[in-house]
Enterochelin esterase-like enzyme (Paenibacillus xylanexedens), 459 residues
Amino acid sequence: MSTHSVIECLEGIQASRLGNIRNIYVYLPPGYHEQAVRHYPVLYVHAGQRAFGPSGPGNETWNMDQAADGLISSGQIESLIIVGITHVRPVTHNEFYHFIAPEGEAVSVGCSGIAYEHFIIHELKPIIDHRYRTLPDNQNTGLLGSSAAALCTLHMGMRNPDVFGKLIMMSPFYVDVQLDETSESGLLEEDMYRLPEEVPAVRIWMDIGDTEGLFLPSQVRRVAHQLLERGVRSGEELAFLEQPGACHQEGDWGARIHLPLLYMFGHVGKPSSLELLGRDVIGLQGGMTVCINAQMHYESGLVQSLLHGNYTSSDPNVLQVHASGELVPVGIGSASITLTVGELSATRIYTVVPELSTHVEVCIHAEVAPEEDSEETIYGGMGMKLVRSGKGRYEGSYRVPRDSGFSFRFTRGFRRFETDVDGKPIANRVFRATDDMSEHYLIQSWGSTSAKTGTGGPK
């Protein structure tokens, strides 16, 4: 049997209702051509031009083929076909939006998600099922997307459970959040998702990093709990993960793609350990909600964050805890919180201080070489606008949620990113807003559009 996978390209596949064509990349697992009678489950992947390799110089890739190869060769998951659907970037309509576009885009960009849904179900899937040896039923058909494509996955999956029985949503764009100095919270928030009152019987993976700017873990956790309230069973039908240190970009999604693949197509195995993560200092006053990120590790390597559990406090007069992991401060002091799941347990000490605000002030100062100084404004992460304050100097102040983490590179306009002095891409700048802070940066040069590797918003 062949030990190598194969990636084929189907060129010029037409989407009739969208009026466009695109390439489709198809991953065939090791042994596909040798095992001529075997049929395979299929995972459809939005924005698939980056699933198996970079779409252009400087762009990141998920390396999903390498992850699948490793899991298949080790026997951790069943062999499967992966279909990467190239994304056609919006001009007048966005195929990842079913119902509403963000307010900032709605003036110029409409929603073509239902036409895109028609393309996948009624035009692309029949081609794949005819050309390849698939298991075409819903229990063997999955859908995966990140950011805005994850929002699309949610809507498409909820509308078509007879087609898609496995939904993988990584860093989903459930809430459009903009910095807004005029609002009390400092943010302008708009829900982008729609959930049916009766959630169909599908299997769901949902995750988020804690360094994704205004893509906040609390937003995704809230949607997960809404699914539980509608009868979805945690663990069996819904897995959630809050990944420490993970950013909103392809490299980070690729680094953990093996986890949803394990959950959907593999052998999870037995739980092996528990870990309590996240903030361990809580304010008695100030209004900041703190939820424990309780991670369960499995023998297979799977990790998920528990949405509910059996928690106890060593001193309920200081700190109490809901089954959801939300901490409830009662008095100033310290207390140990213990989570017990079967034979496993984990304990961590938490401290309650008099007050902790929900938001902090972040000041950003950037210097640009004089020969590079030609803009009145530049931008940091998530729309952070910096205004020229002097020759080669820019600055801005922002009120952001406490503990939010940002990974970004400076831009001077759409896809016009900073580079090193040789015009090559640089690593993203990262900071976490745990308290009021002031950050100073030096911009070496402005490069071409090909230097993009980071993120500034939904994909």
Remarks:
- The helical segments are 64-73, 103-106, 113-131, 148-159, 217-229, 250-256, 258-265.
